[in-house]
Please model this.
Amino acid sequence: MGQVISNQPSLLPAPYCSSLKILQEDVPAEKFSRIKEIVEEELGRNIEEVFEKFEEEPIGAASIGQVHCAKLVTGEEVVVKVQYPEAERFFAIDFRVMLFLVDLMNPQLKDVLTAQQAIFNGEFDYTQEGRNLRTVCSEGGGKDFNFGNGRTKVAFPAPFEELTTRKVLVMTKCEGLTITKIGRKLLEDVAGREGKSADEFVKEMKAKLKKFSAEDGKGDKVASRAVNGLSRIEFAMLRGGVMSKDYLANGGRALYNWTAGWFGARKEYKWSFVPPDGPRLMELLWAEKAWEIFELGAFNADPHAGNIMLDVSTDVVTMLDYGQLIRVTPEYREAFARYVVAIDEGDRAEVLKQWKLLGNDWTWKVTGEVNPVDETYACALFHFGGNAGMKEGMRILKFESLADVMDDFYKKRELRKIDIKKTCPTYGMLQRTCFCLSGVGFQVGTGQQSSAKMLRPSAERYLRRLNNKKSGK
Model:
């Protein structure tokens, strides 16, 4: 929950988002002596028998484990993921507390939460994650997911099955920076263009975001950039400006090195961080996730910014942390594909039809109607419509702000406007997945995109193939 919320600056004050961001990859690390014990206990050998080198400082630490760079005695460069000894027990305690609270506030959601608990429990068995990685590696490794642009590839770390146990996972080493770290660099660049520090920019952004409501979605330039992101032209200008400045500066250094530099100290070349092409990167990530949902029929519901790496030198995107793969039946895939197309089209009747096929049922307490067409469309917009969809959903449901929507959830059942009767765990995990990717959009400057709009091209391709198959073409 903290990982997802930390990517959404419109939901919480900046200090909370900043504190929760450590859950993505910067959780305080376990001492190496304890990590060494776990590795040796799990592998049944001294660490020196398996690894020629094992770096003591982790390259990342997340919610249930940390990752170290290492080199096998056979010469391969690898990363080793080690699970914290108490993580599984603490997780069980946390979920018992959550189930208790849900039972008090929204007992109809208890079954959904229980089903999601079973899904998350799979993350504590790294042998399962190894199998999941092998599945996506064999089906999608090296695949070009960026339709219309063949330069960017998606990679998945390959597991070493013989060195994988319930609490230790050895994988091929992947290069690059996580989107969390890239997002911080991008924030600093954008803030610099405004003549501010990153922290000053975030503080001003939060103040301006308060202007956004169901009636007024325009705000000013700072708030618009925060929620809606930079345009493609702004991205091109930002990238081009950084590169032009570097070429001019290094051109002068090169001239010096080839003249006076022969007789004295040579000047070092300096290269700035060039922000990635945010819109193109997000198209790639949405296309990859759509491939998992519609083609593979199994998706990872945890694509937050700490689980995505980009190597700017090779233009390769690596997807990390496949502890969970949610299986999707062909019938559910078809319903979801039709659902996202209908949301983006604004086809309210079709949205309602697929909403029910996806396993959802609710009552609009204002009128007492069950699954009313307009209000159901508003709920769908909240789930998969991005920033613009949320604003339109608030307008339809007559909520003044997002805070009012959240408040409604915590009211006594008889006082709520929205009374959820039933929802499918798979639907909830699809919603979580899209919410995570929307948060990645914040990190790379594109804002909170509409999941339905971004998934629609892939959904339509899937439906066309399905129709051709049914008609025998």
About this structure: The radius of gyration is 24 Å. Residues 17 and 471 are 50 Å apart (CA to CA). Residues 86-154+174-235+269-473 form one domain.
